[in-house]
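Replying to the earlier thread about multi-chain prediction with a worked example.

Input:
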Amino acid sequence: MPFTYFTAEIKEGVTSGQLHAIYIDLHNKACLVSGKLAIGGSEEMESPISYNLALTSSAMIICPRTCEGIYIESIDGERVGPVSLNGTVLGGTLLVKSEAEWVSLRYDKSKLKDVLNSIGINPFDTRHGGKI
Amino acid sequence: MIPDHFILATKEYKLQTCLLGEVDIAAAYQCLMSFRDNGEELFGFFNSGDYSGASQPHRHIQFLPVESMKAGVDEKESWEVLANTLATKNPRM
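Result:
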């Protein structure tokens, strides 16, 4: 994926305290990579970053966000969108608002790439050491 | 909208932009596990902040049945929830 994310596996029998600690840890990492100070674990605190969280019975993922999405060109050359992505992207799905958006993304993979490139932090950016 | 999409919202008014509490995340996980016990896998997600695709300020975690996310995928193609694939095959800590 062309955006930075942080993952953790969830083992069966995990306690709520452990789950919350995993969440705070992933959120802290997402803050640091976004150049923000991590804020600890208080739920009263506002998150300094935009992010999506995905939770399944076996995994938790956080993806820091810097952009909601972009306008793309339809197959007729018109500007359509914006194609806005939310947490469903971490499930491998994407919701579109119009047929024109769908057709453009479906038949031109470079458009999908452009959208995915736009939403978060480039993992290959050398400022982050190219490791994330 | 995807069919059977549902949300889990906090009883008291809590902000979508504040960190999730232990009870929030535990409730979400419990939801996933009870559906799983009934043979249905869910995908849970939470959008927080201006750039996250979040729609409304009252705190809510959303769920989609994995089966409905697969709708339209050619039966010959395999499809897995990306989050699980990323966590097991391409983890980033």
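The beta strands of chain A are 6-9, 50-55, 59-65, 69-73, 79-84.

Feel free to reuse this layout for your own posts.
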